[in-house]
Amino acid sequence: MTTAPSRRDRRISPVFLGIAAVMAVTGWAVWTDFASDARIAVFLFVTSAWVVSLCLHEYAHARTALHSGDISIGAKGYLTLNPLKYTHALLSIVLPVVFVIMGGIGLPGGAVFIERSRIRGRWRHSLISAAGPLTNLLFAVVCTAPFWLGLLDGVPLLFRFALAFLALLQVTAAILNFLPVPGLDGYGVIEPWLSRKVRAQVEPFAPFGLIAVFGILFIPEVNVAFFDGIDAILSGLGISDLETYCGQSFYRFWTTRDELCQSFVS
């Protein structure tokens, strides 16, 4: 018989604390220009911060499911924020990081297994699905707030660039995850309100939804239109496309240095 989560089930994992520590240390290195190679410091800072947001994304799903009736969540380790406890480590952590490296797109993958039969009420099912991307939206607010509140005067440009790129990842994650595509959280929000027949017809396509979205974004016209929209949103929040461009340029330490971006921090 499944019991409610114990204190041990809720204890924050050392794995998550380690990732958060990497984020803090490399963020400090970017801020102070302490690292011998600034681009590696930016890469580690943004990647670790991105993984932290992935963990919080999945935690939000799990925590909402717990309060909606699925008390099996605790025994599965989802409340510890440990990414190694997720159902599909490849989809949950590795693939989203690869997406960032390849295209600068923030796209979390499905991870926590929720026993939906324990959940009663369509609104609760929808809220469980919405909780993840809403967390990315909150993370995006935190990342963009220093820009639209004018709090970055005197902040090192390298840190500003890195924060701008991290903000771009969170905004894209929130938007893409809310798409009503099978396999993404946006579809999970509307699924409880669809007929049983429609759900049965759509279900076979769910494993391919994530890959399909990423593939469509590789179409040049779609990619340009999508990122023009993202740039417009970020611009409205006080982040210029130059800042996100330079943030991504410094992040991609394995490529040739961009002289324009380098000139700003030299």
From TrEMBL:
It is found in: Cell membrane. GO terms for molecular function: peptidase activity. Its cofactor is Zn(2+). It is a multi-pass membrane protein. The chain crosses the membrane at residues 12-31, 89-114, 126-151, 157-179, 200-219. GO terms for biological process: proteolysis. Keywords: Cell membrane, Hydrolase, Membrane, Metal-binding, Metalloprotease, Protease, Transmembrane, Transmembrane helix, Zinc. Its main location: membrane. CDD domains: S2P-M50_like_1. InterPro entries: Metallopeptidase_M50B, Rip2-like. The keyword Chloroplast does not apply. Belongs to the peptidase M50B family. This is Site-2 protease family protein.
